[in-house]
Recover the amino acids of this structure.
């Protein structure tokens, strides 16, 4: 089929590469505000041609919106205005309630399938795109009952081609779960980077000493604000809930240390170790 | 040379494998309270023979202490009591001021070299040992002026054989830097695991959704209390300093979200992104 990728960056680009490899995509239009991204995507054969929004959308069987979540929510109604009953629109955003609510009453709502691939890195742009990015990861489809059967089938075919396992979920539940499973990790990582940058004045020492443990906890702090401010904004209530709980949990470690209560400290750590049974 | 490894676990075992591979170790004694570790280490050819403390120490050119930091601090004076001026003792602990102070006035102080390899994983035991673990990482030698030249030379040869780059540091400075570069990462990771385990009741959902970002931030929460309680205990003041700063930094994210001050949120994230220039 013919596909338009709106946002030829890390996520859109990785999807394009894999869908072409799997023979799902015969022709791919790239739509992006950044001429640099378009040029890179053309050169890397991620897309076949540049298009403007109307041209791309009108000529595609599938339109994939892979731009920051606030922009996606704003753009989706315009895209749906352009599509016929033979076309499918999907997004790839990290928050789902906002976008689903934005088109709740749109006459073409059923052409849209709300999707979130549980993958990302701290990098961005088409040069970071990798075909195998999604393999083995979860692909969440939200509010599937609001999508037409054929649109849903198209997206399921796409998600299978990405080698992801599909999870169906309500958009509100999705946003609660991702606050825990993804959004809070980014906040702790940003805060950890700021902690170190604030107090550890010897940058050379950071660089020389940094252990693999530190690098893996701080890796996410490299993620760009263009993507993450909109996510935190759209999922504000859930993120605040989790953040409050996280600060409470950190205070327990603080109390254990201040009171030199090492039995309690051991208890806190032993409890945290239970994550071994869940994350393999 | 002949080497005794006291604590034939992840760190001691990995050092043994590499030192044998490099031809530095001709014969390796294993000394460990855990018979299981001894049996595993023998089977994996990490050690050549089991020994008790006195037998191992008396017959070795180099004694490597790779046990939890509180136990190491307690044991080191006994080991130094046993050694002659032709033998060298090194440790591999994550805190350094405590152990250095414990032997400050020991008549054999100069036979000891305080060492910390900046590597570890959330796993333990000889079965997790890997010869290449240390390659390219930093190996910190503390208070080198308190060690005899020949003992220092021996340890430098060992650290080079581990393919680590050597950093010399004062023990107090080491403990401040590692509070930032390693210890706080473990606390945030434990607290993050506890946050998720406290509020996210659907363990199956955690497992299914967990993204690579979450896994990398929570990975350290699998680390065992036997190792980490003693580290936090010995580095309490520094860890508390950093933890307080970290909670302050998290509160800034909380304030930005609560007040819907997204310019401030962007500023916080942009500041955190500076870690890109430091951690490559």
């Amino acid at each position: 089929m013919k596909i338009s990728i709106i946002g030829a960056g890390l996520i859109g680009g990785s999807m394009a590469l894999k869908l072409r490899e799997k023979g799902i995509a015969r022709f791919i239009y790239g739509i992006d505000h950044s001429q640099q991204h378009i040029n890179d995507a053309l050169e890397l054969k991620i897309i076949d041609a540049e298009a403007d929004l109307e041209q791309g959308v009108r000529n595609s069987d599938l339109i994939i919106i892979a731009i920051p979540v606030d922009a996606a929510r704003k753009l989706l109604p315009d895209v749906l205005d352009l599509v016929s009953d033979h076309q499918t629109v999907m997004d790839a955003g990290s928050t789902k309630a906002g976008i689903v609510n934005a088109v709740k009453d749109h006459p073409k709502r059923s052409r849209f399938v709300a999707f979130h691939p549980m993958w990302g890195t701290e990098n961005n742009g088409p040069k970071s795109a990798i075909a195998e990015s999604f393999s083995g990861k979860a692909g969440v489809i939200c509010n599937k009952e609001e999508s037409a059967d054929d649109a849903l089938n198209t997206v399921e075919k796409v998600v299978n081609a990405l080698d992801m396992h599909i999870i169906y979920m309500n958009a509100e539940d999705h946003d609660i779960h991702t606050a825990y499973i993804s959004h809070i990790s980014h906040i702790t990582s940003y805060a950890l980077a700021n902690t170190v940058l604030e107090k550890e004045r010897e940058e050379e020492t950071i660089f020389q000493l940094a252990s693999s443990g530190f690098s893996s906890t701080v890796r996410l702090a490299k993620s760009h604000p263009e993507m993450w401010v909109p996510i935190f904004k759209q999922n504000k209530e859930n993120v605040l809930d989790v953040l409050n709980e996280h600060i409470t949990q950190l205070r327990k470690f603080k109390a254990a240390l201040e009171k030199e209560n090492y039995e309690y400290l051991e208890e806190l750590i032993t409890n945290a170790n239970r994550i071994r049974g869940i994350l393999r």
Notes: The two ends of chain B are 37 Å apart (CA to CA). Chain B touches chain A through 91 residues (CB under 8 Å). Chain B has a mean pLDDT of 94. Residues 61 and 86 of chain B are 7 Å apart (CA to CA).
